[in-house]
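Hi X.,

You mentioned you wanted examples for the new student's onboarding notes, showing what a folding record looks like when two proteins sit in one file. Here is a clean example. The first protein comes first, with its sequence line followed by its structure tokens.
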Amino acid sequence: MSANCLFCKIAAKQIPSKIVYEDPDLFAFEDISPQAPTHILLCPRKHFESLTDASPEDQAILGKLQLVASQLARERNLLEGYRTVLNNGPGAGQSVFHLHLHLLGGRPFRWPPG
């Protein structure tokens, strides 16, 4: 954990949030500025700033992020589809520098994004 990280503070319950999933490896909570009817952020408990900082030892947790996103999408009946997004760096729109996956659903999306 990082003492100055917003998401680490949410994981430690120092900052309130609407947690929708947690286990020893991950936690997930509703985004406070949702971009879709469903907008959940999934975070590893291990702090690393971005995908660039991940290493081969993080392979399992990176895969688990996607699998838990799929589970949450099923639980929310996102039958028409959903999107997962992992922004990497400020040029891609990352604003909190703790790796996190966005789960978005409940509305149509266009391609390409952004």
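Then the second protein repeats the pattern, sequence line and then tokens:
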Amino acid sequence: MSPTPIPPAPISREDIEAKFRAIQGEAVELESEAQDYLILGIAAIGVAVVFVAFVLGVRRGRSRRTVVEIRRI
């Protein structure tokens, strides 16, 4: 004969609250990690934009540079 299964204990309010707190704690950890990566990404994009603007400015400055030649008469 097979053993009879043990009926599960009823779920109490404390069980639900404990599980909710565990899930909420994990969500807070993931949120803080995501914020760190978001800030890092925004900073990297900002540095890239400044670098591209600098390079384009240098190129434009070279092409628009005026050469002045002074001659004595």
